Amino acid sequence: MNFKIKKYQELRKRVYRRDNYKCVSCGWQPPDIPEDYNGRYALYDYNYSRCLEIDHIQPQSKGGTNCMDNLQTLCSKCNMSKGAKEVDLWQDHKRKA
Ligand SMILES: [Zn+2]
């Protein structure tokens, strides 16, 4: 197995576990959390098309790293709205400039 993928899986497992398998923003939690969860797949709720995702607090594009301190658990919904917010901020910044 690719080392990078394996490392990512390990990180995902650790970040999810640290955050108690919950979105740190809204508290959403997937209905089924396997006891032997190994980070190989996203934790998904198919009924609501929502899953847990790993978010970089400081985006990688701005020099954010893959260390635990820079990673948090977000659900796909919050992660999406966070992305939108970043775009808004960027537009505000552009307008003022
Ligand atoms: Zn959420």
Question: How would you spell out the order of helices and strands?
Answer: HEEEH
Bound molecules: zinc ion
- Strand numbers in spatial order across the main sheet: 1-2-3
Mean pLDDT level: 84
Fraction of residues in H or I helices:
25-40%
Poorly predicted residue ranges: none
Biggest pleated-sheet summary: 3 strands, antiparallel
**Class derived from helix and strand content:** alpha+beta
Give the number of domains: 1
Query: Rg to the nearest angstrom?
Result: 15 Å
Overall geometry? globular
> Could you give the distance between the termini?
48 Å
Total strands: 3
Characterise the protein shown here.
The protein is an alpha+beta fold. It has one domain. 38% of the residues lie in helices and 14% in strands. It contains 2 helices and 3 strands, in the order H-E-E-E-H. It has helices at 3-18, 76-96, and strands spanning 44-45, 50-56, 71-75. The protein has a 3-stranded antiparallel β-sheet with strand order 1-2-3. A hairpin with a 4-residue loop joins strand 1 (44-45) and strand 2. The chain binds zinc ion. Residues 23, 25-26, 28, 74-75, 77-78 line the site of zinc ion.
